[in-house]
Structures
1.
Amino acid sequence: MSKQPQHISPLKNFFAGGFGGVCLVFAGHPLDTIKVRLQTQPKPGPGESALYRGTLDCFKKTLAKEGLLGLYKGMAAPIIGVTPMFAICFFGFGLGKKLQQKTPNDVLTYPQLFAAGMLSGVFTTAIMAPGERIKCLLQIQAASGQVKYAGPMDCAKQLYRENGIRSIYKGTALTLMRDVPASGMYFMTYEWLKYTLTPEGKSPTELSIPSVLFAGGMAGIFNWAVAIPPDVLKSRFQTAPEGKYPNGFRDVLRELIREEGIGSLYKGFNAVMLRAFPANAACFLGFEVAMKFLNWIAPNL
């Protein structure tokens, strides 16, 4: 059983989650850029070496070619998208928990927390899918050196002009496949670690900052362990030319396994895991700090 605080306020979760999301982007975007570049780099021809040999090589080359700002390419889209997205994500989790409580004093089991986390993944896809599509296209453009989009808004406009709203939402099914189980794992792991790390006789709300950082970071690791294979397929699918994969993710999966083997589904693994810990540690610390502040200014909300 998990012993989270009894009173659940989806509204406070909304605002605290938004702040947590901003903390996550600032901490994690450089490694997200590297992850997408590794996942989508072209397959080298016979006798050619790969554009990037790995996480460190990609980091060095990006830094040498584009400077520190190169690592923050495409960050405007996730900041615009992530703040409301994490607000909705944490709201969805709070709502998922509240819906499963028969009385406000009910303590939820871990499967119930997993189910509440999965609901949050459904909530976020509407914002996540277009934001991810735009972010991936901008990150790829920066790596290729061919400038097609002036920025996130220009990218959205061009996509809409080319193929309407469907183009902006390309990859939605894959985003759902990635986020629903991964979000369940994310929140369940965090609540479990919070409970495990809470000293006897104390409340999980009194957890020390290092414990919150550890629980948040590990939640990010568990989240991505589930999310990487659909994320690789999603990045490929969202950055592919229109019409390349007529049967959607099945075509991407077939092509990847045929050309590069099953290991290709874990492309960018090091970059993802390196990013997952600090980014999600920052996210949950931001969330807990904001929650404490909201409980202080509006205890009855």
Note: The chain has a mean pLDDT of 87.
2.
Amino acid sequence: MAKGAVAGTAVVVCAAAAAAAAVGVAVVVSRRRRRTRDAEASRRKKMADVIEELEQTLATPTPLLRGIADAMVEEMERGLRADPHAPLKMLISYVDNLPTGDEHGLFYALDLGGTNFRVLRVQLGGKEKRAVQQYEEVPIPPHLMVGTSTELFDFIAAELERFVETEGDDFHLPEGRHRELGFTFSFPVHQTSISSGTLVKWTKGFCINGTVGEDVVAELSSAMERQGLDMKVTALVNDTVGTLAGGIYADNDVVAAVILGTGTNAAYVEHVDAIPKWKGPLPRSGNMVINMEWGNFKSDKLPRSDYDIALDFESLNPGEQMYEKMISGMYLGEVVRRILLRLAHDASLFGDVVPSKLEKLFVLRTPDMSAMHHDTSHDLKHLGAKLKDILGVADTSLEARYITLHVCDKVAERGARLAAAGIYGIVKKLGRDRAPTDGSPKQRTVVAIDGGLYEHYKKFSSRVEATVAELLGEAAASSVVVKMANDGSGIGAALLAASHSQYNVVE
């Protein structure tokens, strides 16, 4: 064979080999692309499945909310009958005289419910001059939160005395009178009168020896006596009851108060005839404020998801505070975290590696959830920055940011609508859920709300208000007002000290 022919054959063979190799590479690349496309399609399907399931389990259609409100009314009635199995204990507050606006004089309040306490001074001047107030917030040293009862109350009494010494010329104690104090004590208490109650247990990081089972008013009074402070506790109140008192002082049509903050609770004015468990003499007003402790409301109608069930199981109080765990600021961010973790595991929401910080309980706080939810930038850059700060994810995709926004929206929407169902339940229990049909004028009904969740999470609070109106219907909604009562519990305690003053004239 000629050399040229051999060379030509070699070239052909090499070209064929190269072509075959190219075909092989193309096949491999094609298969990889197909696998990538299939993997991406599978990931997106898993993402869609999780989100669809989420939307179904968190759904709160109007008929469901009406059923929850009806269940709330049923449980309220059971609690008022002293049914031992009722989740709502419907605690009698012994507050039967609410502020009228006619109160005069100098009164103090002490609000103890967390790592800080507040002392408040109020000069009441009746309907014309209303209230002049001053307050201070005092941090509690950490060692006193786990010390003895004497140490804690002595510290509080000393700070209270220091505050009294700064009264100034705008505040005047009538001659011959003792100073009087309203004591807001936001821990579980078995109340036995307007000015006494025994501590059931400490919460919120407190673990103090020698107080459980004791009268907290007696503990404070003894400390004030040791301090030489001339002051008498005339009202022991829960913060929700204080909010109700502060609300009705500002607006006579307030009938209920709700706390929507880190925790949640509600109180309302009930006619004593509707309280079968009341055994004492009938109050002159004919009414009694009821502390619902509604965070413990439970019903099979509540739309609990797998995320809620797991959260409850892993909580410090499994089986308790079911309603609170679905609507309060302590838990909303944690529900969002659990959903994002599921999306990260099942659908690689944040890439191939699940962020380790996302595994940490309560790493996503509700204020962070609110900040992400309120991001209006076109690329959700603020939400992305939050995810970076909280989860350590340096670069989130636009898809991941929009899905996170959607999750925040669904969790907040459910919480707000469930809270609204509870408010509607109270209004319904009072018979104020319908417009009059006999031509009589509409009766204005006001629900005062306090708490950081309601005040600062605007997309949450606006949905609460819209849902209450939706449940009432157009005719009834025009006479029901849900409004902010900022810091009502502080002045409310001072006002209750005034309305239950030992110097009030009994006719």
Note: The first helix runs from residue 3 to 57.
3.
Amino acid sequence: MAPCMALWDEKEIFPVETMRKAAQLGFGGIYTQPDVGGAGLSRLDTSIIFEALSTGCVSTTAYMSIHNMCVWMIDTFGNEEQRHKYCPLLCSMEKFASYCLTEPGSGSDAASLLTSAKRDGNYYVLNGSKAFISGGGDTDIYVVMCRTGGSGARGISCLVVEKGTPGLSFGKKEKKVGWNSQPTRAVIFEDCAVPVTNRLGEEGHGFNIAMKGLNGGRINIASCSLGAAHASVLLACDHLCVRKQFGEPLSSNQYLQFKLADMATSLVTARLIVRHAAQALQDGTGNAATLCAMAKLFATDKCFKVCNQSLQMHGGYGYLKDYAVQQFVRDIRVHQILEGTNEVMRMIVARSLLQE
């Protein structure tokens, strides 16, 4: 992915064939069960894989992490028919998935979502729209949170909607600061009839399904930040050794040495909390959700600072698109916003502490 990273960003290419090659290595369903085509690996394995892949292209890896989350949700909460219908095609990345929770009027306050799904015989009729959907319009399967009951979290259910369903359409392709190798569009439902058999779990369980998916999603996106920071530290080291100022390489400047040491320390510290949270999620420990929030908060904040400091060390060169460091900065900035903003992560951690 690394040799193509800049091209995919500039031309806004969704690298389908490259991702399908990754799927041949098991990366289309990393923590999905093997009986439906998944690799059956742990959350810890997944974190390591996404960090490594992100050193090549953050944007593409981040989409793959969302795809993996969707496959896991179908594998975990779907019945046997649903699992065997959707997961093999998704694990091979013959088909791609998108996660549809955020709406124009409900981001962090996900429980207030308005997209409605009214039961009509053997179908739900969907009306509403989803915003900022990664892969929207280019993907095949949409895991949609919608309101089948009253207000609040208990009125939300989860439906699998297939591309081509009458009443399903998409907004314009968004122009973004980063994450340009994956398309982002609004997903729109206008009297979109979806079979009741496409519901994951029971009615009213959708919010719980969404949140459990996001616990893993937070680990995944934090891992993508680790990869960007890791690559940026290496880029900084190379630049400091090559670039000369005042007759000496920048690497001889003690201030920059100390900055580099701080960057590496932040990276390793962030990596440890992410790996710890991944293991807790795998083990099902009681505080796993809080640890996932802590890891996402800490790693995405610290890794952005590492990438930004690396850009600063590059001086004017860091601001040129010929140098990869600026793309790492652009691509991971959004990690502090999506999968729950870092402000919401702080709310989750504080609420957990105050309830103890």
Note: The chain has a mean pLDDT of 97.
